[in-house]
């Protein structure tokens, strides 16, 4: 499978009124679906990157907002549901989205010290997604401020598919978050980890190239 | 980063009576309150020969010898460390009235299937009567000079303190990836499944900072431990390792340069089939040589020779004292106070 070339254009459509973090919410009907290809693989405990042309791993992305809250809907294939990290050999499935924190040209690989990135990290065993800031490989840190714990989610694995919704106030509550502003376009990238016996975690993951998201 | 000082511990296995007081001291001090630590024994005492804790840890490998690091197994809590269980003390001891029908202690939950625990094969040992044998091996993190857990962590969450060489996990940086568990060939770094982070022996650093010994060492009934800095020639630990050269590393072939040393155990003479005593020691020296040595590149024969040399030194010094002489080594091995053993 090839790359998204040119980069995909994700639309976060405007839908006034209440939106529930639920895939059945009518707000999703008008949201176009974008297919993002995970085209690069990182190796375990090392930053050697390789193209991943034959893994056929993709995520289907939708985004909506109501002017106050933004919602991301992610769907991807997962043969098994791995939602426990309660023992040494157990690893949970995970997913993340990455957006440059304040410079457009942050490096894809977790940003850089002067070009940090804001990451929302979901893992199937965690009570809530984490707000993370990173300034380079090995530096991601969960934001310590309580305000940044403002991310809610929905998750369900069914019949070989994960459906995950991540929602957050559009306006950043701290310097550790990106503000989503109507009319603006952002770079965005995604990462996916297969838990279970695949034991993907940390740098051992598959990622997309930078794509774009426009807030309508 | 090179360390300024390196903490070291020597354990004299001739004096270890297998009472697990060190284990319980450590457990009580560090791992009996927080969730997810029940299966952890930062200090454990295993019977040798035996499978150890976690089960068969010596066979699992580590960062030093495995090219495909993904193939290193991660031990499971129940089958490798032992599911934590409680006994029905209240019923049997009848401290609160109890249950008149309950007469024996029963573990709950009852271990089943591939049950295991930290001292599951205690005192089983090896050999056949009348030459059966075993000895005890207390283990903590080795606070290695070249720690593979530090190398394994992609987040630099595991680090070696510059001031004393103690290896610690930054609990805020750790993301629970468990590469460190794979990396450590001694399996002395643990995973807390509740907090989802790695935790390990901290060599009681808050005590070391106050010039007190680590708790496993100070509470030891047999007074087997010697603690000091590798750079302090006046310390008992230094004298045992560097001057008298009677202490060896556990599995130096793991190439991590552990900083816990052991004085290998002497044993009573073996019997012949006719019941006559021989010159041979009951614990096969080959078994000891599989465990202990000086350096990573020693051959099995060199290790055997070194252990024989150590036994010779100890025996000679014992004889010296027996015949009325004085021996610095025996003075160290028979400490009278904590100050004789611990110089931090």
Q: What keyword list fits this structure?
A:
heterodimer; A: 216 residues; mainly beta; Immunoglobulin-like; 15-stranded mixed sheet; 0% helix; B: 344 residues; alpha+beta; Alpha-Beta Plaits; six-stranded mixed sheet; two-stranded antiparallel sheet; 12 helices; 16 strands; 17% strand
Q: Report the mean per-residue pLDDT of chain B as an integer.
A: 94
The percent range for strand residues of chain A is 35-45%
Shape type of chain A: globular
Count of alpha and pi helical runs of chain B: 12
User: What fold name stands as the CATH topology of chain A?
Assistant: Immunoglobulin-like
Quickly count the domains of chain A.
Answer: 1
Structural class of chain A: mainly beta
Report the strand count of chain B.
16
Q: Rg of chain A, please?
A: 16 Å
Task: Walk me through the structure.
The complex is a heterodimer of chains A (216) and B (344). The model of chain A has no long low-confidence stretch (mean pLDDT 93). Chain A contains no helices and 15 strands. Chain A has 216 residues and is mainly beta. Chain A is globular and about 45 Å long. In chain A, a hairpin with a 2-residue loop joins strand 11 and strand 12. Chain A starts with 8 loop residues before the first strand and ends with a strand. Chain A has a single domain, classed as Immunoglobulin-like. Chain B has 344 residues and is an alpha+beta fold. Chain B has one domain: Alpha-Beta Plaits, CATH 3.30.70. Chain B has twelve helices and 16 strands. Chain B has helices at 21-31, 77-82, 89-93, 148-152, 179-183, 205-208, 215-218, 236-243, 285-291, 300-322, 328-333, 338-341, and strands at 7-12, 44-48, 86-87, 107-108, 135-139, 158-160, 167-169, 189-192, 197-200, 225-229, 248-250, 260-263, 269-271, 277-281, 292-293, 342-343. In chain B, the strands form six sheets. A six-stranded mixed β-sheet of chain B has the order 15-11-12-1-10-16, with helices on both faces. Chain B has a two-stranded antiparallel sheet with strand order 2-5. In chain B, strands 3-4 form a two-stranded antiparallel sheet. In chain B, helix 9 crosses helix 10. The longest helix of chain B is centred in the last third of the chain and has 23 residues, at 300-322. The radius of gyration of chain B is 21 Å and the shape is globular.
